[in-house]
Design brief:
Chain lengths: 442, 293, 286
């Protein structure tokens, strides 16, 4: 008996010691901090802190966030947001949050993540909030499908509209070296060879991030198959179809000719963008949100081009890569204040749209903009050009974060990055991709 | 005396905390790995039992093949670099009888005390294709050997392995040197009188005498190589493509990128088996008995 | 001794001495220069790093790099977290392992060998392999984002190796010590703390270094279990320079230097103790 008691005592002591260490951890100190605030301002209204997981790395993500937070102060004076900056990691951290039960109250989410999170009950169904916040009235008719998931429910408040992958180029460099802006694949090949001769990097790409490598392959895939990678993601077709094989072959041919900078697959956005801005690279690939930054850096010298077509299908000029993604601000079902969090999430999305319109010269949004608002930043010429061409665009596909099937997403991301190294072969690429596509059909 | 050593109360107090901790934190999750590797499981819901499907898929997955291969490359590289080079340097350091011996020990050990992230970032900047120290050096020396260090499917794994090997060489060096110093000098004196060169003396005396130290170093290097993850995570993200995947990275990617926890568990259980085999083989090769001297 | 060696071997010795020195110096450069280079560039701007002066010492000390690094990154906080986690891990591991090893090596009870072998399985299991179940366990125990969520798994994983080393060492301590204590009427706990632990010092100091290094640089578990900024350990906190400082090498270098300096200084001060511990450790024979 005595022996048992002593054992029990010992275990208790150990546990107490453990908790003591736990309690002195700064983690708990910080979670105590807001409570103090409550006491100080307790006379007025209770201050509620919501954790938010959002992108906040460049102007295109910082400006909308700051604008929305500023607006939030007026609309919800009792809400304080605690920002957790999203890691540029294909959403791995969010998965970890979900797996370890640490989901923030509000978080930005992509299409494929919605799938995983909803299967594991880690995302709040927003149907009622869509109506109560009037979000369904504000949404662009063309973006309805972004709000409503295939299963008929709403899981995130979208803000981005039909965004596109653009191929930017430095006009001055093309002129200086007498290179024609490529319209066909053959032109592009010639340009690569010519730039290579004069030691200019033909195309700068931040291929350490795998969504952009996916986008580059998608650009080539859309030359013969307007559905691009989206078609494969939806479980239609096969990677062995000619359009995908040709895309891989030709992209890889250019890579072998020296399309990319040395070490491109280990370059992040800052490094790749500075190559383009400093005139060391002739072309640059990124979403249309790059327009503003490139215009600031290169002024009149920068423009975007239609993706060069394959001669067997010249009408593909208006087939674009990129597209809308049914992602946006989502809410954790385990949030203590989920009603409030849902309202704030809707509010954030709405304000993101406004900010993108006002300050980022970006009309490609999910929500209708109050007509009384005038953009503060005038649309740069590239955006004007894009806006003029928008009605002509025949098809779009999807960004990596707009893919619905996480398994396919991983495969295309890894494989497309691989394809950008000269040592890989298009045959391996197609074979690996086909394996995944086949598996998903089962 | 018998009573003294079979004091039940004391035994419980001595044994239970470790045992409980070990069972809860190591053993229970270990069992989980093996169980869940037979399931299709997204990490949160119940999951469906699919028997051996995860395992059959592993063997058809070229990423798995790459991961196994990379683990072996990594382990071999660490062994050769840390133990091979470490031994040579330790021999050298034990043979020069000056004050500088301490200097070398400190210099070699310095990378060990740096944070692993600092080491990886540092070498990322050394290997940077455009501005990196290494390519700059080749440029200045006029050697046309500039490389795409981390973007080559065949070389990247060696570069990554090198970074790990570089960081921990100092530790292995210190262990081997400490071992050499613990060998009584009269052995060497005897060898010298027999006319053996210092190198011969080392081959004949030091290496056999250090069997136990080597066993430990080998286990460190080989399991370290098989488990490699941090360097890939920081330096290459498994890339280019899948060329620097290891089993751990594969597990991480399956679970947290593709949401296939069950499949990730299958590669994790392979990792366990692999490490188990490696340790057993090392222990078999290098006899357990102490060498008496 | 020297007199016994003839002149031919003497020459040979001299030659090999030079050869050894060259080897040692060559590796010293490989080991040391990258670190020096990092310190150099932490004082430079990009132009100096990339173009005008990539290798040499900085021409002007640009302290603004350090200022930037200190204001934008919480390096001291990460450092403190790492220190707390590593020290607690070491303390807990040594405490538990010593007790466990003593009970298995000396005391008589049913299943003592089974228990010892059972725990030694831990040596063969890579921490990484149990990441996912561990993450779920930590969630269920509500330990997320506490120091404990790292200390507990680190301790559990270091137990196996530590108790194995201590077990081996204990077997080499003559049992007469305890017999004498027993006859003097000392209880088992007094014997353990007053007689055994002091005798284990050499093995313990080796294990302190080993365990500390393991905990100091552990990455995967921290990556998964620590999601809160204020709880990040050094390897994790420094990771997020990526993408933010990447084009400003100077500031990045400064942050890395700040993160490294304390441990480097500590090591240089205590290098003799470290060496001593490893020398004895060499005799421990895992």
């Amino acid at each position: 008996m005595k022996f048992r008691q002593l054992t029990a005592l010992f275990i208790v002591v150990v546990i107490i010691a453990f908790t003591a260490i736990g309690c002195t951890s700064p983690g708990t100190e910080e979670s105590n901090a807001p409570k103090e605030n409550v006491h100080k301002e307790g006379n007025q209204e209770e201050v509620i802190t919501l954790k938010i997981y959002a992108q906040y790395s460049d102007d295109d993500t910082r400006i909308p966030y700051d604008y929305a937070v500023e607006q939030l102060k007026d609309a919800y004076p009792n809400v304080k947001l605690e920002l957790d900056i999203q890691a540029q990691d294909d959403g791995q951290k969010l998965q970890i949050y979900a797996a370890t039960g640490n989901l923030p109250d509000i978080f930005q989410v992509g299409t494929s993540q919605i799938k995983t999170l909803k299967e594991s009950d880690n995302i709040l169904v927003l149907d009622d909030y869509v109506k109560s916040t009037g979000f369904d009235k504000k949404i662009h008719p063309s973006a309805e499908n972004l709000l409503w998931n295939q299963d008929g429910h709403a899981y995130a408040f979208p803000y981005a509209g039909n965004e596109l992958v653009l191929l930017y180029y430095n006009k001055a460099i093309f002129e200086e070296h007498g290179v024609k802006v490529p319209e066909t694949y053959e032109d592009l090949k010639e340009a690569v060879v010519k730039f290579k001769e004069v030691d200019i990097i033909p195309l700068s790409i931040f291929a350490k991030e795998k969504w952009i490598t996916t986008a580059l392959y998608d650009v080539f895939a859309t030359r013969l198959e307007a559905g691009g990678i989206k078609k494969l993601d939806e479980g239609k077709g096969s990677a062995k179809e000619k359009s995908y094989v040709e895309a891989a072959n030709r992209l890889h041919e250019l890579v072998k000719l020296g399309l990319l900078a040395d070490g491109a697959t280990n370059m992040n956005y800052d490094q790749a963008a500075s190559l383009f801005y400093e005139g060391k690279a002739a072309m640059f690939i990124n979403g249309q949100w790059e327009i503003q930054a490139s215009t600031e850096k290169l002024g009149e010298n920068v423009d975007w081009m239609f993706y060069p077509v394959f001669s067997e299908k010249p009408e593909a000029k208006y087939a674009f890569a990129g597209g809308a993604a049914s992602g946006g601000y989502a809410v954790s079902p385990y949030s203590e204040h989920k009603d409030l969090a849902a309202e704030v999430a809707a509010f954030m999305s709405e304000k993101y749209c406004e900010a993108k319109y006002l300050y980022r010269a970006n009309p490609l949004l999910a929500l209708k903009i109050d007509p009384s608002l005038e953009p503060i930043e005038k649309f740069p010429p590239m955006m004007e050009k894009l806006a003029n061409e928008l009605p002509n665009i025949k098809s779009t596909t999807a960004f990596a974060w707009g893919l619905t099937e996480p398994k396919f997403k991983v495969a295309i991301e890894d494989q497309s990055q691989f394809l950008l190294t000269p040592g890989y072969t298009p045959e391996e690429f197609i074979e690996e991709l086909e394996k995944t596509v086949e598996r998903l059909k089962k | 005396m018998q009573k003294f050593f079979s004091n039940k109360k004391a035994i419980a107090i001595f044994v239970l905390p470790s045992l409980i901790l070990f069972i809860v934190v190591v053993f229970y999750p270990l069992i989980q790995i093996f169980i869940k590797s037979f399931y299709e499981w997204n990490g949160l819901s119940k999951g469906t039992f699919i028997a051996l499907e995860n395992y059959t898929r592993l063997f058809e997955d070229s990423t798995f093949e790459t991961s196994i291969k990379n683990g072996l490359i990594f382990a071999t590289f660490l062994t050769i670099y840390q133990i091979g080079l470490g031994t040579i340097l330790a021999f050298a350091a034990s043979n020069i009888k000056t004050k500088t011996g301490g200097f070398f020990r400190i210099v070699y050990f310095l990378p060990v005390v740096l944070s692993v992230t600092v080491v990886c970032q540092l070498w990322l900047s050394v290997f940077n294709a455009e501005y990196g120290l290494l390519n700059k050096l080749f440029e200045i020396l006029g050697i046309d050997f500039s490389q795409d260090w981390l973007s080559d499917r065949n070389n990247a794994i060696f570069v990554v392995a090198f970074v790990n090997a570089w960081q921990y060489l100092g530790y292995q060096f210190a262990l081997i040197l400490a071992g050499i110093k613990s060998i009584p000098t009269h052995y060497y004196e005897a060898a010298q009188i027999d006319g053996a060169s210092p190198l011969q003396a080392h081959l004949k005396i030091t290496i056999p005498m250090l069997a136990e130290t080597y066993r430990f170093c080998l286990v460190l290097a080989i399991t370290g190589g098989l488990n490699a993850f941090t360097q890939m995570f920081i330096m290459t993200n498994g890339g280019p493509g899948t060329s620097t995947y290891t089993l751990t990275y594969m597990m991480y990617s399956s679970a947290f990128r593709a949401g296939e926890y069950g499949y990730g568990m299958a590669s994790a259980s392979f990792l366990v088996i692999q490490c188990l085999i490696a340790t057993i083989v090392i222990n078999k090769l290098i006899a357990r008995e102490r060498i008496v001297y | 001794m020297e007199r016994a060696v003839n002149s031919k071997t003497k020459n040979k010795l001299k030659f090999s001495n030079i050869f050894y020195r060259i080897c040692l110096w060559a590796y010293a450069i490989l080991s040391f220069y990258p670190i020096v280079w990092m310190i150099f560039y932490s004082f430079k701007n990009n132009d100096e790093i990339f173009v005008s002066n990539p290798f040499g010492p900085p021409t002007t000390l640009r302290l603004e790099n350090y200022f930037k690094a200190l204001t934008q990154y919480n390096v001291p906080k990460y450092f403190l977290n790492s220190v707390v986690v590593s020290i607690c891990t070491v303390a807990l591991t040594i405490l538990l392992a010593t007790m466990f090893a003593y009970a298995t090596a000396r005391m008589k009870w049913k299943g003592q060998n089974v228990a010892r072998i059972f725990v030694s399985i831990g040596m063969f299991i890579p921490v990484q392999s149990i990441l996912i179940p561990l993450a779920i366990l930590v969630r269920d125990l509500n330990l997320s984002n506490r120091y404990l969520s790292l200390i507990v798994p680190y301790t559990a994983f270091n137990l196996a190796f530590s108790s194995m080393v201590l077990y081996g060492f204990l077997r080499s301590i003559p049992i007469e010590l305890e017999e004498a204590a027993c006859i003097d009427g000392a209880g088992i706990f007094t014997t353990f703390s007053k007689i055994i632990v002091p005798n284990l010092k050499p093995a313990i100091s080796t294990l302190i270094i080993f365990t500390f290094l393991q905990a100091w640089n552990e990455f995967p578990i921290a990556l998964i279990l620590i999601t809160e900024e204020s709880m990040k350990t050094l390897p994790l906190g420094l990771l997020f320079f990526q993408g933010q400082f990447t084009t400003d090498w100077g500031a990045m270098g400064a942050a890395m230097a700040i993160a490294s300096l304390p441990t480097v200084i500590m090591y240089v001060f205590f290098s003799n103790q470290v060496e001593k511990a490893l020398t004895i450790g060499g005799a421990v024979k895992g």
